[in-house]
Amino acid sequence: QSVLTQPPSASETPGQRVTLSCSGSSSNIGSNFVFWYQQFPGAAPKLLIYRDNQRPSGVPDRFSGSKSGTSASLAISGLRSEDEADYYCATWDDSLRGPVFGGGTKLTVL
Amino acid sequence: QVQLQESGPGLVKPSETLSLTCTVSGASMTSFYWSWLRQPPGKGLEWIGFIDDGGNTNYNPSLKSRVSITIDTSNNQFSLRLTSVTAADTAVYFCATYSRSSLAFDVWGQGTLATVS
Questions:
Q1: Cβ contacts of residue A63 below 8 Å, gap of 6+?
Q2: Rounded distance, CA B50 to CA B53, Å?
Q3: Who has the most CB within 10 Å: A22, A66, B86, B106?
Q4: Using one digit for the tens of pLDDT, what is the confidence trace for B63-90?
C-alpha cells in the first residue's frame, strides 16, 4: 500500500495530451515538493520533474508538472510511442520523515 | 558525470543478511546524500534510507530495525545491509544520489536483483 495514490493505468493515442494524477495528504504533497520519475521495463527510474514543475536538463517541454493542495499532476502533450512507460510520483512525508512514492501509473500509447 | 554501480550476491537465504555495495564515480562523496531504494518484481518503488559523507543516516521506519547503511569515502563506496531477510525482501535494489539542491533522486544505478530463497 503506497502512501501516495496513483491510478494503475492510463492510455491515450499519439499526439494527444494525457494527465497522470497523484494524490496525497497534508503531511506529504500538501507541504512538500513533488517529483516525477519515468521508468521503462528493466531500467532504472529517471527523474522527469523536480520541485513540482521543474524539468531537468534534457527533459522535453512536452512534460509538465503541477500541484494543487494535496494532489499533483504530470501532463504529457504531443504523446509519442516512446512515452509508453511507468510513471511514479514522489515527495517527502513529514510524518514518516522520509521520501515516499506512489504505486505508479503504467501509460499505454495506443 | 556521476555514475553508480551496485554489486553484491544475487541470492540470499531466508533469515540471512543481504549485503550490497554501490561504487560511485564522477562525484565527490561530499556532493550528495547517498541512497538505497528497492522495487519488488512488478511493484512500485520503496525508499530504504540514505547516508551523508559524515556517516549520518536516515532510514525508512518500516525497515529501520533491520537496515544499516555505511559509507567508505576513501573508496568512493557506500553499502547496504539488510538483516533477517524473507521472501518479501526479494527486489531490484537501486543505489541513487539524493541531491541537496533539487531534493530529488537525480542519478540512479542500473539496479541489482536480490532474490531471497
A1: A36, A48, A49, A55, A74, A75, A76
A2: 10
A3: A22
A4: 999 999 999 999 999 999 999 999 999 9
- Torsions phi, psi for A58 (to 5 deg): 100, -15
Q: Are B71 and B90 in contact (CB under 8 A)?
A: no
Measure B103 CA to nearest chain A CA, in Å: 8
pLDDT digits (tens, 9 = 90+) for A6-50: 999 999 999 999 999 999 999 999 999 999 999 999 999 999 999
* Optimal mutation site among A2, A31, A50, interface B, most CBs of chain B within 10 A: A50
Please, what sign has the CA dihedral across residues A46, A50, A56, A59?
positive
| Distance (Å) from the alpha carbon of A32 to chain B's nearest alpha carbon | 10
